[in-house]
Amino acid sequence: MHCPFCRHPDSRVIDSRTSDDGLSIRRRRQCPECGGRFTTTETASLAVIKRSGVIEPFSREKVISGVRKACQGRPVTEADLAILAQRVEESIRQTGASQLDTNEIGLAILGPLRDLDEVAYLRFASVYRAFESLEDFEAAIEELRADHNRSQGATKHE
Question: In angstroms, rounded to a whole number, what is the distance separating the alpha carbons of residues 143 and 23?
Fold first, then answer.
């Protein structure tokens, strides 16, 4: 790590702390050359393998823009989309994988999106689960209905 003051190519870590969200580490450093102190933040990189084979860093903003299309005309706010993207990133990081393909990310979006808005979920699922017929939509709708019936049954018994 180069010193931002004198550009010395080395520094010494004085203190390390995990961030509140647990996704990064804050390190306090000191330059042995000029004595300047500075802070760095380290995060584990998460890479996405696109269909073309190109590898790029994971982006919450890309998750949001992809889901935004499915949520068009639905009562979903930008704050809802930001929370969804955070949930998706957290679930992907919990897998321990450092590289995922775009399809895996699309599938990771389905659960949080289903909780957020079922119509947007169906729109998005039709792409990522490769719906090819009306029967595919009907099966997904039946699955949603069955979940509603189970959750309503659990509520009635409580």
Answer: 34
Say how many C-beta atoms besides its own lie within 10 A of residue 148's C-beta.
11
Select from 36, 42, 28 the least CA-distant residue to 7: 36
- Looking up tokens 């860093």 gives 57
Phi first, then psi, for residue 76 (nearest 5°) are -120, 125
The whole-angstrom separation of Cα 63 and Cα 84 is: 9
* Cβ(92)–Cβ(100) below 8 Å: yes
Burial class (CB in 10 A: 0-12, 13-18, 19+), 31: buried
Q: Is the whole model's pTM more than 0.90, yes or no?
A: no
Phi, psi at 43, each rounded to 5°? -130, 150
Tokens of 46: 């998460």
Which element (helix H / strand E) includes 67? Answer: helix 60-70
Q: Are 71 and 120 in contact (CB under 8 A)?
A: yes
How far apart CA 99 and CA 47 sit, in angstroms, is 5
pLDDT tens for residues 52-70? 999 999 999 999 999 999 9
Work out the angle at residue 102's Cα, subtended by the Cα atoms of residues 98 and 104, and round it to the nearest 5 degrees: 70
